[in-house]
Amino acid sequence: MSLVVKQLVAGYGERTIIHGIDLEVEQGEVVAVLGTNGVGKSTLLRTLAGLQPATSGQIRFEGRDITRTRAHRRVQQGLVLVPEGQQSFPAMSVFENLELGARVRAKSATDTTDRIAAVIDLFPRLGERRNQAAGTLSGGERQMLAIARAMLTEPSVLMLDEPSQGLAPIIIDQLAETINEIARTTTILVVEQNLTIPSICASRIVVIEEGAISLGGSPDAVLSDDRVVHAYLGI
């Protein structure tokens, strides 16, 4: 089991956001976490990444208890988060942004170049924009850059926080194809409000309501559930 979460509680100050979440992510899975705005999806990922402390409960990653492990150590161990918002260093070039990601694992300048070349094969548009300032990229390109930089750290589990946010439908479809390609070698935990990526990519979907998991199962079962249909399609 790659990632095991038991009775996880977390929040901000005295406000509890997630309440006793149990979640298991097996190696090779793409698990999508669905939920409307403000139900605790991002808090869950931030807590798993070590950016938000757990109030109680346990997080185990590849057999080790990492509940109190610092965020940078979790990255080194292979648990990597791409936060929402297409984050990059806007004044730096695409290539320079990728260099920062490569340094986590690269052993030499040549190794850095080789690793970047490999990730550009996955994101050819970034190769075309390699000398362009990251701040001038489109929203879809910035999202690709954020994911590419994370892939350079060689994650065992890649966590994506609302990667489709603010993107046009055609770009979301392209992003879903890329996520499927990444999933051939990497376990993925993706948080979304948009149904496109979960329906195309997920092997399993869980739904969070009011800080707790209310539903889980195969994409067909979850996406046909009356509660999900009503919440997301208004039917």
UniProtKB/TrEMBL annotation:
Belongs to the ABC transporter superfamily. The keyword Transmembrane does not apply. The lineage of its organism: Bacteria, Bacillati, Actinomycetota, Actinomycetes, Geodermatophilales. CDD domains: ABC_TM1139_LivF_branched. This is Amino acid/amide ABC transporter ATP-binding protein 2 (HAAT family). Keywords: Amino-acid transport, ATP-binding, Nucleotide-binding, Transport. One of its GO terms (biological process) is L-amino acid transport. It holds the Pfam family ABC_tran. It comes from the Bacteria. Residues 3-235 form the ABC transporter domain. One of its GO terms (molecular function) is ATP hydrolysis activity. InterPro entries: AAA+_ATPase (IPR003593), ABC_transporter-like_ATP-bd (IPR003439), ABC_transporter-like_CS (IPR017871), BCAA_Transport_ATP-bd_LivF (IPR052156), P-loop_NTPase (IPR027417). PANTHER family: HIGH-AFFINITY BRANCHED-CHAIN AMINO ACID TRANSPORT ATP-BINDING PROTEIN LIVF (PTHR43820:SF4).
